[in-house]
Description:
Strand content: 35-45%
Largest sheet: 8 strands, mixed
Bound molecules: coenzyme A
CATH class: Alpha Beta
Order of helices and strands: HEEHHEEEHEHEE
Radius of gyration: 18 Å
Number of helices: 5
CATH superfamily: Gcn5-related N-acetyltransferase (GNAT)
Oligomer: single chain
Structural class: alpha+beta
Distance between the termini: 50 Å
Number of domains: 1
Shape: globular
Helix content: 25-40%
CATH topology: Aminopeptidase
Amino acid sequence: MLKKFKRLVTKVLYSESEQVVEFNSRTDEVEGIHYLICRAIVPDIPEMLAIEKSVYEGNTPWDFETFKAELSKRKTTLYLVARYEDELVGFAGVDFKRANGEAHITNVAVVPKHQNRGLGSKLLRVLIESARKQECQNIVLEVKASNDNAQKVYQDLGFKILNRKKNYYTEEQEDALTMRLDLVPAMGRG
Length: 190
Ligand SMILES: CC(C)(COP(=O)(O)OP(=O)(O)OC[C@H]1O[C@@H](n2cnc3c(N)ncnc32)[C@H](O)[C@@H]1OP(=O)(O)O)[C@@H](O)C(=O)NCCC(=O)NCCS
C-alpha cells in the first residue's frame, strides 16, 4: 500500500515538475561584460519596477501584482532577469501558451546605462531559444508604433511587422504594431 502511495506521489510530482518551463541560470558575455541571467523570482520585482521607472519616465506600466501574477505562471511563462555585479539591469518575458503554438513576448526593458550593448537582444535571443524548445511555431509581440528603437531590435532578430492595432495603448491613444518571428522554416510546414 505504502509503495503504491509513493509511486502515486512520485508520478504526480514528476508530471507537475515536467510542465514547469525549465531555465538554468547562466553567465553570458555581451561586449566584454558578464551578465548573470536567471529566472525572475518575486523578490526581483522591486528592481524590475525600478527599471520600468528608469525607461518609462517614472511610470510603471506593470505594477507589483501584475509582475507577481506573471511570474507565478511557471508552466506557461518564462521571465528572465540580467544582473551585473548584483544589480538587476534588464528583464524580459515570454508567455508560451497562445493558440496555434504561438509564444508572446510580453515585456522587455534594459536600464539606460546598459542599453545599446546588445543586452536586450541577448535576453530576447534566450527567450527565442526557449520558445523553440517549447516547440512554438512563432513568437509575436506588440510594440508602440512610435518606439523605433525597440522595433529596430526586433527587426534585427528577424521579427516582421504583421499588422497595426489602432489605439491599442488606450491611455496614450497610440497604435501598436504586431510583429512576428516564424520559428518553423517555411519548407518544414508542408
Ligand atoms: C528596447 C530595449 C529593451 C533594447 O535594449 P538594448 O539592450 O538597448 O538592446 P540592444 O543593445 O540589443 O540593441 C539596441 C541597439 O544596440 C545595437 N547592438 C546590438 N548588439 C550590440 C553590441 N554587441 N554592441 C553594441 N551595440 C549593439 C543594436 O543594433 C541596436 O542598435 P541600433 O538600433 O541603433 O542599430 C531598450 O531600449 C529598452 O529598455 N527600452 C525601453 C523599454 C522598451 O521600449 N521596451 C520595449 C517594449 S515593446
